[in-house]
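Handout, section B. The chain below has 328 residues.
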Amino acid sequence: MEAALAGKDIYLQKPTSLTVKEGQQLRDAVQKSNVILQVGTQQRAMPQFRVAAELVRNGRIGKVHTVKIGLPGDPGGPEVMEMPVPSNLNFEMWLGSTPELPYNEIGVHPQNDYSRPGWLRHRNYGAGMITGWGQHHYDSAAWGMNTELTGPISVEALAEFPKSGFWNVHGDFFVKHEYENGITVYTSGGYPNGVKYIGEDGWIFVSRGDYQASASDPVDKEKSAEALNASDPKILESVIGENEIHLEKIDDQHGNWLECIKTRKQPISPIEKGHKACAICLISDIAMQFDRKLEWDPENEVFINDEEANAMLHREQRKPYGTDYVKV
């Protein structure tokens, strides 16, 4: 937000925000300042995700009724003891707007390697894989469903959480979203890692293929080895006609951002789309805390007639850090 208000163009890694309200505040600051913000949902630069979305949008599998998203949970971890803060870390500033906790290395990030940092697995700083990798897949799914600037109208979820240890984000889980256009989206670690569009005339599955960000990723590589598949190989051979829907094609997420800095055109993953994808992740995490179905208003971004759930759309922030204290 401060960078946007200072007129700086921004490349923002996902998840876009810690809470729905913070995402709204960032979106408003970016729009007010008219800066170029690119969200790091780089699956839009991977050709198989664009091809899958184009085929779906052009009806190659008929009317879509179901989307299945494969996304792992995180394992629990050990109990921890307070450790001395390293001399190269300003832990007070690192904590920022989040509650104060004693320092331990697995609660921050490793000092000597680049494996998955422990802060990804603590609710102070995020919601685990539902926001970590979830924003990638929900963004890709929305590309194919043509719902990039809206969201579901309901969400319900089941999840297991660690009963002990420092790490406390979700493990195994299941989330269901219903959309106004009749599509139902299911997300679980029990599905292959990727996005499967299911229509009346067939299905298309897309993923990154045989890919891991680090050796400590909580995903079985064998379950994510296929980059693009369909119920009938002929679907993938179909040519998109000149008068059909052609989605924006880029080769590099960073390169697209740099080009848009020069042209002042919107990048492929602007804040509006990034915020909507992240909001789906965040309301999914909220639904994991309840044993009931939550009705969601995707335009006004509030739960309908549920003040208990709405109270979780924002968190108290520790002064002087946080979006509530930015001078807009």
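Note. Residues 271-287 form the longest helix (17 residues). Compare this with the example in section A.
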